[in-house]
UniProtKB/TrEMBL annotation:
Pfam family for this entry, one: GGACT
Name assigned to this protein: Gamma-glutamylcyclotransferase
Phylogenetic placement of the source organism: Bacteria, Bacillati, Actinomycetota, Actinomycetes, Kitasatosporales
InterPro entries: AIG2-like_dom, GGCT-like, GGCT-like_sf
Domain Gamma-glutamylcyclotransferase AIG2-like: 5-140
C-alpha cells in the first residue's frame, strides 16, 4: 500500500533531514495534523506518542511513484524501524491525518490515511513518565 508519510520533526522543510531524504523525491508536501497524539522532545528529534486529545502538527508528504520504495526503505532506516523488531525506537503505523492546506478562506480539512512513525511502546512509556512534552505539538516552535 503506497501511503503518503506524515512527518513532524527533522524531515520538515528547513530541518536537517528534509534535504537529505526528501528533496527531489516528493510530488507534494502540505501542512497537516495528527489528532490523538502528543509530541515529546527527544535527543535532537521528536517522538509522537499516541494520546487521546493531543495534536501533532507537521506535513503530509507524497512520494513520487518512482521514488516510493526507495524512500520507504530510507525512512525506515532513519527512524530505526524494522517490522516486528523488539528494539525499535519508532513503529511505522497507518493513521488518519488531517490536511491543513489551502488558503484561509477555503481550507481543505480532508482526512487522509498516511504512514506515521510513532514512539515504540517502551519508548512511549519512558517519555510519558519523564519526557519533555512539546506543548504546542509543533516541532518548529518548540
Amino acid at each position: 500500500m503506497r501511503l503518503p508519510f506524515f512527518v513532524y520533526g527533522t524531515l520538515l522543510p528547513g530541518e536537517i533531514n528534509h534535504d537529505l531524504f526528501l528533496r527531489g523525491r516528493t510530488g507534494a508536501e502540505e501542512p497537516a495534523r495528527l489528532n490523538g497524539a502528543v509530541l515529546y522532545d527527544g535527543p535532537g528529534y521528536p517522538y509522537a506518542v499516541e494520546e487521546r486529545g493531543g495534536v501533532v502538527h507537521g506535513e503530509l508528504v507524497t512520494a513520487l511513484p518512482q521514488e516510493y520504495e526507495e524512500l520507504l526503505v530510507a525512512l525506515d532506516r532513519l527512524e530505526e524501524y524494522a517490522p516486528g523488531a523488539p528494539r525499535n525506537l519508532y513503529e511505522r503505523v497507518e493513521r488518519e491525518v488531517i490536511r491543513d492546506g489551502g488558503d484561509t478562506a477555503a481550507r481543505d480539512h480532508t482526512a487522509v490515511r498516511a504512514w506515521v512513525y510513532v514512539a515504540a511502546p517502551a519508548v512511549a512509556a519512558r517519555l510519558r513518565s519523564r519526557g519533555k512534552l512539546i506543548e504546542s505539538g509543533d516541532w518548529r516552535v518548540r
